[in-house]
User: What shape does this take?
Amino acid sequence: MSEKTDEFIYQVKQCVQEPNPPAYASILWIARFALIGFMLCFISPYVQRIEHLIARHYWPNRYQHRQHHLYELILTKRAKVLLIEEGTKL
Assistant: This one.
């Protein structure tokens, strides 16, 4: 090798640090949090259903009001669909 190449390699070795091995513990923590977040995306609808069951147990009047509101909402949407199918605008 030439003298310039040796000098260049020497300068690079002084500036560049030796690489460290990857921190596997940190990677595992990140993977765990990502997995938990991914699972929560699929579990959250079921948790919301359980919340409604608990609320229904403690506040039955509010549950009846909510149930009536949702029923009226469904009927309104069905009426809009029927009117749109007939060609009439609401």
Notes: The chain has a mean pLDDT of 88. Helices lie at 3-15, 24-58, 60-86.
